Amino acid sequence: MRLIKTFFLLVCCFLMGACKMSYRPAYHHSPQQNWMNDPNGMFYDDVNHIWHLYYQHNPFATTWGNMTWAHATSTDLIHWEEHPFAITPDSLGDIFSGSAVIDKNNTAGFGENAVVAIFTYSERKGQMQAIAYSNDGGYTFTKYDGNPVLTADIKDFRDPKVFWNEVDQQWNMVLAAGQEVRFYASSNLKDWTYLSSFGTDYGCHGGVWECPDLIRFDNKDVLIVNINPGGIHGGSATQYFVGNWDGENFVIDPSQRHNTYWMDYGKDHYATVSFHNAPDNRKVVLAWMSNWQYAEVVPTKGFRSQNSIARDVELVQQGDNSYRLYVHPSPEYANLDIPAYDLSYTGHPLTQKLSGRDMVECLRLKVQLGAEPVSIMLSNSKDEYVELVCDPVTHTFSMDRTHSGLVDFHPNFAAVTSAPLPDGEEVDMVIYIDRCSMEIFLNDGYVTMTNLVFPTKPYNLLTIK
Ligand code: FRU
Fold first, then answer.
1. Residue 423 designated active-site
2. What is the pLDDT of residues 22-55, one digit of tens each?
3. What are phi and psi of 2, to 5 degrees?
4. How far apart (Å, rounded) are the C-alpha atoms in residues 239 and 261?
5. What CA–CA distance (Å, rounded) separates 36 from 58?
6. Residue 335 vs residues 38, 73, 82, 332: alpha-carbon distances, Å
7. Taking a C-beta distance cutoff of 8 angstroms, is the pair 433, 26 a contact?
8. What stretch(es) of the chain map to CATH 2.115.10.20?
9. According to CATH, where is 2.60.120.560 located in the chain?
10. Nearest atom within ligand 1 for CA of residue 56
């Protein structure tokens, strides 16, 4: 009997050893346990210098359901502390995505500097918008007893994002309504008036529009619209439109009308929205690092999903009055204490052993381009690899994860994602790797690509040729 027990124990140890990757991110926010999707209600408390993040959470399972706003805070966007749930479901429905604002002038009457969350109640009969307020800086919320504050008779009507309109001295809301967004105005966050709709004639429409945001730059506005399915590489993705918000309508720039602009060219970048009240007028966004195609079956244990690193977005004029969003890792990550590699490829094959702690590292590569494609391989001793290719012939940058490790948990996971290769003779690449994710920034954020990978052993070799 003892022999059988010992044998059984040995088999278990062997099986566990065969795949000891925990896939628990080291410097990304992930839920301690169970399910997470969209980041919600993010705001920066500029008195206490705290970033607040709420998120779609299922307290009872590692798959979607029982949607609740869970809560985490950080002082550096790297280390996150979890707090008790902020808003939980009740008889009006589950708590879907939304935003939060600091009501500095007490427009809603909940008290000066109350944090007001604006979210969607979802139940079988439909979706409606509601509010809840916090008088302790965002830790505990009271639901407003006049809820809901906004209803409509369409099925998909959700994800309100509220911003202050300085010119009109009122609140504006953008929310997703089927395959368009709608704008509303309010003086008190409780009574909302319809202003306009945008989107039927623009962008991609292969799925439902979700989680919109309006990011206000000095003389331009960027409307973020997440779409699922119908994203650039299938399933979920984030598109954006550049134009002007005139207080009533979002007027898209003529030069931006005929293309779809993607904020990220990977498969795992969704539900991207910005922090309210970020310091120094920064535009800081977070994305949920997954894709609805397979989010519920990814092989993490005890938890599912993580958020991207925070990113500061910048709007850059490209000539001829056209604009492009540049997406930078937020400056906070300059303090990240992880192994980093700086390498230059000048046309001679290059090999570098990686000693990163279990796939926690940052690669900074300068790649000189000639006439031939350049291949950058990250691999392990189990023949699992990710291949990045800069191809000057087709002007594309691609990431192939078809042999990256565990891929067959879903038919849509094994994929090659591609993006336009920036012009020029050199490509600068910064790659943040964290256990099961790769976030790639090309030429200071001209292109970003965010993808999950699940190797069964850390990639410990980098080859460029
Ligand atoms: C986007 C989304 C939102 C919705 C939430 C529900 O991922 O579908 O539109 O509010 O997730 O969890």
1. no
2. 899 999 999 999 999 999 999 999 999 999 999 9
3. -65, -35
4. 5
5. 7
6. 26, 18, 22, 6
7. no
8. 29-329
9. 336-464
10. 12
CA distance 439 to 432: 5
Amino acid at site 358: D
Where b means 16+ CB within 10 Å and e means fewer, 355-383 reads ebebbbbbbebebebeeebbebbbbbeee
Q: Give the Å distances, CA to CA, from 294 to 104, 200, 204, 462.
A: 41, 28, 21, 28
Phi/psi for 10 (5° steps) reads: -60, -40
Q: Tell me the CATH number of domain 29-329, given options 2.115.10.20, 2.40.50.1070, 3.20.20.100, 1.25.40.850.
A: 2.115.10.20
Give the Å distance between the CA of 94 and the centre of ligand 1.
11
pLDDT exceeds cutoff 90 at 319: no
How remote is the CA of residue 407 from the centroid of ligand 1, in Å?
A: 25
Looking at residue 49, its amino acid is: H
Is the domain spanning 336-464 CATH 1.20.910.10? The answer is no
Q: Which atom of ligand 1 is nearest to the CA of 270?
A: 7
Is-above-0.90 flag for pTM? yes
pLDDT digit string, tens, across residues 354-364: 987 789 999 99
Contacts for 187 with CB less than 8 Å, ≥ 6 apart: 107, 170, 171
Work out which ligand 1 atom sits closest to the CA atom of 159.
10
137-163 pLDDT, tens digit per residue, is 999 999 999 999 999 989 999 999 999
- Pocket, ligand 1, Cβ cutoff 6 A: 37-38, 56, 67, 96-97, 120, 158-159, 210-211, 271
Cα(362) to centroid of ligand 1, in Å? 31
Contact (CB, 8 A) for 192 and 173: yes
